[in-house]
Every structure is written in structure tokens, then in C-alpha cells.
Amino acid sequence: MTTQSTRLTHRPRRNRSRRLFGNLLYALVLALVVFFLLTPFLWMVLNAFKTPLQIIKLPPELIFQPTLRNFENVFGTQNFMRYILNSVIIGAGCTLVGLLIGLPAAYSIARYRQNRLAVIILMARMVPGITFLVPLFIIFRRLGLIDTYTSLILAHMLVGLPFIVWVMVPFFESIPRELTEAAVMDGASALRTFVTVVLPLSGPGIVTASILSFVFSWNNFMFSIVLASNRTRTVPVAIYNFISYAQIDWGGLMAAAVVITLPVLVLAIITQRYVIRGLTAGAVKG
Fold this sequence. Notes:
The structure is a single chain. By secondary structure, the chain is an all-alpha fold. It contains 13 helices and no strands.
């Protein structure tokens, strides 16, 4: 009897020890992942406030006198504000046009079960963007649209539009048909039903699709380097201004990278809750 009670008391202790060991192992793995993910970003931020000699110094200095000379070069000599404005215009244009086309397309796919159209849009998203680069360049050159906002917005929509459609289809499928049928019975047209009933219920999905489409456009490099020039150059391409044949301005390069990353990082932190809610809400039909 005593031996049996002793075994029973040892089992909870073993379970607690295993649970504690599992929690410690999980915390260690999580700390390692966070360390490897944040180290490049922290290294970039630190070098943005260093002089060229401090950047190349080995071992690297973690405690130093910071300088703003690199950011003065970014916004003064390189006029980065113009490139930021170009990226904002192109990203906003790509997102707005993508929503105007993608929302009705996604609703049509969800409402009428147009699976073939959904597969075609998915294939357009899966094909590498470089496949469209040469045909788009030839078409835009014939139309005289090279180095214009129009060409870049249309090119960036190759990424943004399919993503908007595939994010919104589950949202529209989760909306009960009884709501739209009731609106039609009350005399509302299909367009009015879509605008006044369907879209307000899909707010989180629209916000999610808009944010991710804008981020994809903001980070796009390939289309901008071919279709843009001095007038419409975006920030991912403008970072090449710090790379020359003779040398690389590492301080200016790091400062420009911080300027490019900061708006997207702030936007992701602010809208993280809405993006997660938007990506998961459409997965449950009700």
C-alpha cells in the first residue's frame, strides 16, 4: 500500500518535470528563431547610424557615437522622398484598381462556383513574374507607356489582383445566401446587393487584401527596374544609387534600407490583428 502511494506521488512530479522541460525547450527554440530573424534587421539599423570606418571595423562596435549623416545623404543628396512618393502612388493605384476588378471577380467565383476561372487566376499567380516581363515591356513600349505610373500599376497588378481574388473568395463564400436572396426579394438589383449587403460584411477581408497588395507592390523590384526610369523610380530600385562601379556606400545603403523597411514594419504592427482576423475569418462558413 505504501509502495503504491509512493508511485502515485512520483507520477505528478514526473509530469511536472516533463512539462517544465518541454516549456524550457520551446522557449529556447523560440529564442533562437527570434535571434536569427532579428539579427539582420538590428545589424542594418546599427550600421545606418555608423560612419564608413565604423561599419567595416572588425570586430563590429556595439557601443558607438551615432551619426545622422547617412540619413542626410538619403533625403538630401539622393532625394529619396520622391521615390517614396512614387512607391506610394503606384502601390495605392495597384491596390485600388485591383479592388475594383478583384472584388466583383471574387464574388462571381464564390456565388456562381466558377472554379475554372479561379484556377486560371491561381495559375497567373503561380507563374513567375519574369515570364510576363518581356511581353509587358514590348507592349508598353509600343503604347508609349514606359516610365509611367500606368505601366507600373498594371504590371504590379499581376501580383496584387490574383491575391485579392483568392483572399476574398472564402469571405464571400462564408456570407449566407439568405441575406442576398432577401435583398433581391426586396427589389434590390445584383449590383446594389453586392455594394450594400456583401461588401459591408466583408470589411476585414477587404482590409487584409488591401494591406497585403500594397505591401507586395511596395516591395516589388523586378517590374520597376525594367519599366521605370528617373521619373517613376520606386524605393527598391532607388537603393541602387548607393552602389557604384568603384565602391559601395554601406552607410547610405543601410539608411535607405531602414527607410524602405520602416513604413512596412509600422503598417504590419498596426494592422497585425486585422490581417490575422481577415485571413482566418473567411475560413469558417456560417
